[in-house]
Amino acid sequence: MLLKKLQLKTIDYKLVLTMCFLFFFNSIISAQEVIKDVVAAKPVETVPSGQKQKIDGIIANVGDYIVLDSDIDKGYLEITAQGGSVKDITRCQMLGKLLEDKLYAHQAIQDSIIVSDAEVRSMMDERLNYMVQQVGDINKVVAYYKKNSVEEFKTYFADILKEQKLAQEMTKKIVDAVEITPEEVRNFFKKIPKDELPTFGAEMEVAQIVVEPKVSKEDKQKVIDKLNAMRNDVLAGASFATKAVLYSQDKASLPNGGFYKITRKTPFVKEFKDVAFSLGEGEISAPFETNFGFHIIMVEKIKGQEVELRHILISPTVSEDALKEAKERITNIRNKIINKEITFAEAARTESDEKETRANGGTLVNPNTQDTRFELTKMDPTLYSQVSNLKDDEVSQPLLNTDDKEKKTYKIITVTNRIDAHTADYAKDYTKIKELALKEKQITTISKWFDTKIKDTYIKIIGEYRDCNFVYNWLKK
């Protein structure tokens, strides 16, 4: 039953995370849909059938934080707006999740986790800019939240964002501190009865060779000039975060206005970190180049060995002639492999322009598991479409690839290994078993954390909610 218990715990944990779908966790993604859907919605329609709509008021205290009855309704509203079902989520479950968030935020303050006003303002600028772009008018957002003015809404929004960030940082602190040893992984696996061992789906290992089109000096200079113009605008008072949202090609940081928090150990390219750690607070770099394109960086805060910054990335436009030359080059590489003049791995080491895979013969690393196997049912759809029909040792035709930073390259792909669906094997599936074991330990650690902090924190639950059967001992019985 061990694995079944773990699976149930995992599902419960995911349910808890799913119930984080309060508006401010997802406002960037769904501002337009939420506001549009809510205009016609009535509060009673957001509450599961058989439950009465209550007059709003305080229903719980956690430290200095309060929970309103309307907070539960907002939780239902957002899950519904996201297309989820609320029929199996009780008000008690929703309250339990809200209590968890409040305790995380409360304890973050006790642990001296700091979320600065500047950080909150930056978060607010990013999200409001995006929402206004989507719905066309900030007054629609203000009306949705039934506030009397933009300023009133911003004050309310700032409190929510700060609490959210505190909770996120506290959760991260707890989970990041959890480590697992090989002995713990081994013991975890031994405790699983043979008839309850998990089954892993079919997998494959994939290698690729990448050729980058050459960019002309003229096209590079156009990007440098554009970034210099943005830098001058910011120095004159424009918002760097807004510029990043509008123009940066780094999709990972774009929703956050180009924001990153890094140390020297953060896995960023050397050129980027060298510039970041050479700047003082408030300084903006000149445009500089990495293998991703050209950047400018603005340092917002330096905290010891940690730097909070924003950046804008723009890659030069690749000409049609350069693309044609790149395709011809990779076609020649493919022909040499097909004619057995060179192996795929040797060609990757000597010809590929992709530094991350070149040294290991072009073998891709799964970003979700950090090993070289890709489970077919969980593979990125684009990658799956490129390799699903390849036979053993077959090399794909040249493929034009555009990454999330709009950078264009040509590549060829081959499948180097296929693993059939199978019952978990400790030696062959160590990485996956370690992930399961770590997840169980993280869940246990979080559970113990709640048990301890609940005892040490002022918590009060009011009225009929005292009859709830919570996952954690909020009532201190």
Task: Report what the structure shows.
The protein is of the alpha+beta class and 477 residues long. The protein is 48% helix and 15% strand. It is built from 16 helices and 13 strands. It has a four-stranded antiparallel sheet with strand order 9-4-11-10, covered by helices on one side. It has a four-stranded antiparallel sheet with strand order 5-8-7-6, sandwiched between helices. Helix 1 packs across helix 16, helix 2 packs parallel to helix 5 and helix 5 packs across helix 7. The radius of gyration is 26 Å and the shape is globular. The N terminus is likely disordered.
* SSE sequence, one letter per element: HHEEHHHHHHEEHHEHEEEHHHEHEEEHE
Helix vs. strand class: alpha+beta
- Portion in helices: 40-55%
Name the beta content range. 5-15%
What order do the strands of the largest sheet run in, or round the barrel if closed?
9-4-11-10
Radius of gyration: 26 Å
The total of helices stands at 16
Arithmetic mean of pLDDT: 85
State the oligomer: single chain
End-to-end separation: 29 Å
Largest sheet: 4 strands, antiparallel
Model regions low in confidence, pLDDT < 50 over at least 5 residues = 1-54
Give a brief outline of the structure.
The chain is an alpha+beta fold.
Q: Which helices and strands appear, and what pairs or packs with what?
A:
Blueprint: H1 2-18, H2 23-39, E1 58-62, E2 65-68, H3 69-81, H4 91-110, H5 117-135, H6 138-144, H7 150-176, H8 182-190, E3 199-200, E4 203-211, H9 217-235, H10 240-247, E5 259-262, H11 270-276, E6 288-290, E7 293-303, E8 306-314, H12 320-338, H13 344-351, H14 355-358, E9 374-375, H15 381-387, E10 399-402, E11 408-419, E12 422-423, H16 430-456, E13 459-461
